[in-house]
Amino acid sequence: MSVLVTGAAGFIGFHVSKTLLARGDAVIGIDNLNPYYDVALKRARLAELTGAAAFTFHQADIADPAAIAPITAHHPEIDRVVHLAAQAGVRYSLENPYSYIESNVMGQVVMLEAVRRLPGLKSFVYASSSSVYGGNSKQPSSVDDRVDTPVSLYAATKRADELITHAYCHLYEIPATGLRYFTVYGPWGRPDMAAYLFADAIMAGRPLRVFNHGQMARDFPYIDDIVAGQSRQSSPRAASRIHRCARNGARTHGRQGAPADGAGRRGDELRRYRSLATRSRL
Ligand SMILES: NC(=O)c1ccc[n+]([C@@H]2O[C@H](COP(=O)([O-])OP(=O)(O)OC[C@H]3O[C@@H](n4cnc5c(N)ncnc54)[C@H](O)[C@@H]3O)[C@@H](O)[C@H]2O)c1
Questions:
Q1: Considering only CA atoms, which residue is closest to atom 42 of ligand 1?
Q2: Is 181 in the pocket of ligand 1 (CB under 6 A)?
Q3: Which residues does residue 209 pair with via DSSP β-bridges, in sequence order?
Q4: pLDDT recorded at residue 180
Q5: pLDDT > 70 fraction of the chain, expressed in percent and rounded
Q6: How many domains, in total, are found in the chain?
Q7: Structural domain includes residue 269
Q8: In which band, very low, low, confident or very high, does the pLDDT at 247 lie, cut at 50, 70 and 90?
């Protein structure tokens, strides 16, 4: 298989690319290496991938049709697309809202326009987010819940991605699957996320910074489970499907950090986890 992976220098994109290369697929990676967090980490992930002969990398912005169209035109052999590039993070959308519209909304349309022209496309799997459950009071979330009360711009752009993709599926019969990731953790993880921030504080002997006085709940799926689920979502159907990707169970560390209480923050959801029933359907 020949797989286009956007966001290949990112946390999940790196792991997906590495797994695909290990099983013998060709991977065409795209990433703009933006400075949302330390670019050295993105370059270090890429360095792990570039040793593989079957890996090709293009530094390009998915929101720029003039940059993306030539890449897909140059690689007509692409038969699978894993679209992960996005402006991630809930809280940063309060600081830099335009970057979310640019990468997540414009970027989604540019990718859909590019992939609908691929002659042998068998699947388009893209990252949505559990944040689409937003203001829902029902917990745990399930596959049939309504998702029309986003509480952050990030969530609104991810929901927009689902709706835009649904329209493209209807119009062009793109075999698309959206994955609503919960809070993923693991090696090479994102430095803006709780698992990394907590581990960093514990190792440095600093208090843990917790929000809403610790009254928050999350499902934490491990990256290997996400990658395994990702590779199963490739059946060649022309339909718009949504799946939730979550798993309980954090690994424990030998040291403990003392919490320092903080107030809740705008855009945060207090509880975000999913039902075991829908999880088993993945
Ligand atoms: N990690 C999680 O827990 C989580 C949870 C829910 C959803 N997601 C979604 O999964 C996907 C991957 O997340 P991640 O944790 O690996 O994030 P990440 O930030 O580590 O990876 C995203 C990559 O996309 C690249 N990128 C961003 N905008 C781009 C653009 N306009 N053009 C090209 N490249 C661009 C970034 O440079 C980065 O390397 C994202 O769509 C994110 O919204 C992640």
A1: 88
A2: yes
A3: 260
A4: 93
A5: 83
A6: 1
A7: no
A8: very low
The residue with tokens 């923050």 is 265
- CATH for 138: 3.40.50.720
SS3 label, residue 217? strand
Does a structural domain hold residue 204? no
Range of the domain at 45: 2-184+218-245
Please, what's the b/e burial string for 157-167 (b: 16 or more CB within 10 A of its CB; e: otherwise)?
A: bbbbbbebbbe
CA distance 32 to 13: 13
Residue 233 belongs to some domain of the structure: yes
Q: What is the pLDDT of residues 261-276, one digit of tens each?
A: 566 666 666 665 554 4
Q: Cα(258) to centroid of ligand 1, in Å? A: 30
Residue 268 within a domain: no
User: CA-CA distance, 237 to 264, in Å (whole number)?
Assistant: 42
Ligand 1 atom closest to 184 (CA): 3
Place of tokens 């049709």: 65
Does residue 110 or residue 135 have the better pLDDT? 110
Cβ-contact 134, 142 below 8 angstroms: no
Q: What is the CA radius of gyration of the chain?
A: 18
Q: What is the residue with the minimal CA distance to atom 38 of ligand 1? A: 10
pLDDT in tens, 46-83: 999 999 999 999 999 999 999 999 999 999 999 999 99
Total-model pTM: 0.89
Cβ pair 169, 179 in contact under 8 A: no
Tokens of 28: 């065409």
Count of beta carbons in the 10 Å neighbourhood of residue 113: 15
Q: Which of 28, 38, 84, 222 maximizes ligand 1 atoms within 8 Å of its Cβ, making it the mutation to test the pocket? A: 84
Pairing outcome for strands 176-181 and 55-59: unpaired
